[in-house]
Structure formats: structure tokens, C-alpha cells
Design brief:
- The chain is an alpha/beta fold and 393 residues long.
- It folds into 2 domains: 32-263, Type I PLP-dependent aspartate aminotransferase-like (Major domain) (Aspartate Aminotransferase, domain 2, 3-Layer(aba) Sandwich), CATH 3.40.640.10; 266-391, Alpha-Beta Complex (Aspartate Aminotransferase, domain 1), CATH 3.90.1150.10.
- It is built from 10 helices and 14 strands.
- The strands form 4 sheets. It has a 7-stranded mixed sheet with strand order 1-9-8-7-4-2-3, sandwiched between helices. Strands 12-13-14 form a 3-stranded antiparallel sheet.
- The longest helix has 29 residues, at 363-391.
- The radius of gyration is 22 Å and the shape is globular.
- Residues 386-393 have low confidence and may be disordered.
Length: 393
């Protein structure tokens, strides 16, 4: 096929760290409080501003606490699990890499006994009707590595006895989070709005705050996980006094992203942008002869981490390693043409592509990318045909 001529203006489609906001330059960080203590009056004010802007844009209830945590979403979620799990039995939902990772931590690191792991293969959701909400429930709102998300929060009862632990790292700022159904929610701003990495955010409902202040886990708790002391929450964490030293450059970058989001119209505008990006990919996939959504149920397809699998029989007949080789070759060709960076499938997921469609990506760049995907696939498979022909006696 004819090689396209129009290229995306920004070729960054990585699922984390994801693309910076449109128009971002390093000048956006000029106001960063570098060389100053994060515990100074000014430092704490910048951290508190990040918390307040987060609450306003995401519509987080005023009686929920918001804290900035070390070590990205992983650090925030681990802090929650190590600090609060064990008070009840646990249902862990796992349908992609990160959910499976949380299940591993609960079973093999915390070594908790009363655990049910409710699994599904890549592309599907577990049977949500089997979840027991008299227990604590651990799940990812959006499966970053599978492109499968929960459709809403309707399956979670308002009268639950256990707490819900929600990894929302690729859902925040792009999907409507039902805060009334979430007790512990975490995300990293490097996935959500393209902020520089290192830091995670934790959001606690009043019920989660009560658990945190009244439950003492029977294992040693690392300092960077400690959010309570002497039966009381360390309230400073939720007012901008972080557990360890944050990067004020990263904080400034997050504030820049929040200001941009606010100027667009807040969360509603961000969701609209992500939906438009995902819709452009969906329309292309519907006509494609070689890829399909990894997600089986259209109601669960992600609008951020769009995961695609091969459907061309010439490729699906190959081994998993063979399919992965096709994906690697395709992605390398796209990178060499400077039209798409970092869109290969997650290492544990079925071979294919993963395209970030979140709100920091322009729909025009998605639309410019799609013809290149067809062209690159045609080049890769044609090269494969030639190699096979040359190998024949």
C-alpha cells in the first residue's frame, strides 16, 4: 500500500508515562520550588494546592482525604494494602498484569490466608456478581495491560461491609469514578495526565480512614507506608506534608497539568477527549482486516489504554513468540519513521499493540497514526512472506 505522508504532530502514545499535555514545554516548570524544602511554608502550600486542585477536578467528596505518596501508584497501593488488609477476608479480582500483581502480593508477600482470587483471562472481566462485599475487595478500575475496564460502579453495593481497594491509575482523569463506591483509590499522575513520574496519589473514604486509624497489622510496616500513628491518622500527609521528600519539579509539572485540565472544563472535558480518541481507534478497528480489540465485551473497552490483538490468520497461526516478533518488528518500523513510540503490547499480555488514548493525546494525532499502522503491518507481513519464500528449497 502507499506510504502515508501525514505524521502525528506528537508521536508519543506510551501508556505510562503517557504523553504530556498539548503545548507543554520545559518552561512550564519555571515556577518550581527547586532548592527549597518541601516542608517550608511555600513548599507545603504547593503540595496542598496540588491536593486541592485534584479534589476540585475529580469531584472528590470533601470528607475524603487525599495524600501524595512516594513510588508512584505502586507505592500508594502497596501502602494501602500493607496498612489495611488483614482485618477481613479478601476478594482479589485479577484480569490483567497489575491485578495479578496485587493478588501475588496479598497471597505471597503478606501471606494472608482468607483470600479468594477471582480471575479472568486477558480480554475479559471476572464474574462481578460473585464478589462478596462482606469482605475487602481489591481490583483495578481500568486494566492498563488488557484494555478492559469495569463498566461502572453499579456492581458495588453502597451498604458493603468491607472496603474497596481500587487501583485507578489509568482511569483517573479519563473515566467517571464512582467515589461513593471507592474506599481506597490510588493513581499515578504520570499515567493520568502525563505528569513526571515518582509520585502516587491515595484517596481515602471516611470508612477507609477509620480502618487505617483503628487497625494494627500484625507485620512490620515500612516507614514510607505509615499513614497512622498511635491510633490516629497522620493528618499532615493529607495536607501536603509528604512522608518522604517529593520532587518539587514533578509537583510543579502536575500542577501545570491540572491547570490545563481546569482550563478545558475539568473532568468532563478530559473524559470527552479520551472518548473521542478511543472512538477514532474503534472506528478504524471495525474496518481492519488484521487487528481486533483485546477486550471481548464492547461495554468494557478502555478509553485510555487501548489494547489490540492480531486477527489475521497468517499471524494468529504463529506461536506466541512468532506473533510477538511481528509486533516488535511493526513497532520498530513505526519508531524508525517517527510516527509512534512505545505502542507494543505489555510484556505479559497477548501479542499486539497498546495505544494510549487518554486526554493528553490529540485526536488529530490518533487519526494521523492509523494509516501508518496499516502501512507498517503490510510492510512487516510482506517482508515475512519474502523471508519464508526465500527459505523454501
Amino acid at each position: 500500500m502507499t506510504k502515508p505522508t501525514l505524521k502525528p504532530a506528537i508521536a508519543n502514545f506510551s501508556s505510562g508515562p503517557c504523553a504530556k499535555r498539548p503545548g507543554w514545554t520545559a518552561k512550564s516548570l519555571e515556577s518550581a520550588l527547586t532548592g527549597r524544602s518541601h516542608r517550608s511554608k511555600e513548599g507545603k502550600a504547593r503540595l496542598k494546592l496540588a491536593i486541592d486542585k485534584t479534589r476540585a477536578i475529580l469531584g472528590i467528596p470533601m470528607d475524603y482525604r487525599i495524600g501524595i505518596m512516594p513510588a508512584s501508584d505502586t507505592g500508594a497501593f502497596e501502602a494501602a494494602m500493607w496498612s489495611m488488609l488483614g482485618a477481613r477476608g479478601i476478594d482479589v479480582l485479577a484480569w490483567e498484569a497489575f491485578g495479578k500483581g496485587w493478588a501475588t502480593d496479598v497471597l505471597k508477600e503478606l501471606k494472608l490466608k482468607d483470600v479468594r482470587e477471582i480471575e479472568a483471562a486477558y480480554g475479559a472481566l471476572p464474574d462481578l456478581s460473585t464478589v462478596d462485599f462482606s469482605r475487602d475487595v481489591v481490583f483495578t478500575w481500568n486494566g492498563t495491560t488488557s484494555g478492559v475496564r469495569v463498566p461502572d460502579g453499579d456492581w458495588i453495593p453502597a451498604t458493603r461491609q468491607g472496603l474497596t481497594f481500587v487501583d485507578a491509575t489509568s482511569a483517573a482523569f479519563a473515566q467517571a469514578i464512582d467515589w461513593a463506591k471507592c474506599d481506597v483509590t490510588t493513581y499515578s499522575w504520570q499515567k493520568a495526565v502525563g505528569g513526571e513520574a515518582q509520585h502516587g496519589v491515595i484517596v481515602l473514604s471516611p470508612r477507609a480512614a477509620e480502618r487505617l486509624s483503628t487497625y494494627n497489622p500484625p507485620w512490620p510496616l515500612p516507614k514510607i507506608f505509615r499513614m497512622a500513628k498511635g491510633g490516629k491518622l497522620i493528618e499532615g500527609i493529607f495536607e501536603g506534608e509528604t512522608i518522604n521528600t517529593p520532587s518539587m519539579l514533578c509537583v510543579e509539572d502536575y500542577l501545570d497539568a491540572l491547570t490545563w485540565a481546569d482550563g478545558l472544563g475539568g473532568q468532563t472535558a478530559l473524559i470527552t477527549r479520551a472518548d473521542a480518541n478511543a472512538a477514532a481507534i474503534r472506528a478504524w478497528v471495525a474496518k481492519s482486516s488484521w487487528v481486533a480489540d483485546l477486550a471481548i465485551n464492547p461495554a468494557t473497552v478502555s478509553n485510555t489504554s487501548v489494547c489490540l490483538k492480531f486477527k489475521d490468520p497468517a499471524v494468529t497461526a504463529l506461536s506466541v513468540d512468532g506473533q510477538a516478533a511481528v509486533s516488535k518488528k511493526l513497532c520498530a518500523l513505526l519508531e524508525s519513521e517517527k510516527v509512534a513510540y512505545d505502542i507494543g503490547h505489555y510484556r505479559d499480555a497477548p501479542p499486539g499493540l497498546r495505544i494510549w488514548a487518554g486526554s493528553t493525546v490529540e485526536t488529530s494525532d490518533i487519526e494521523a497514526l492509523l494509516p501508518w499502522l496499516d502501512w507498517a503491518y503490510a510492510q512487516c507481513t510482506a517482508a515475512g512472506d519474502r523471508e519464508q519464500a526465500a527459505a523454501r528449497p
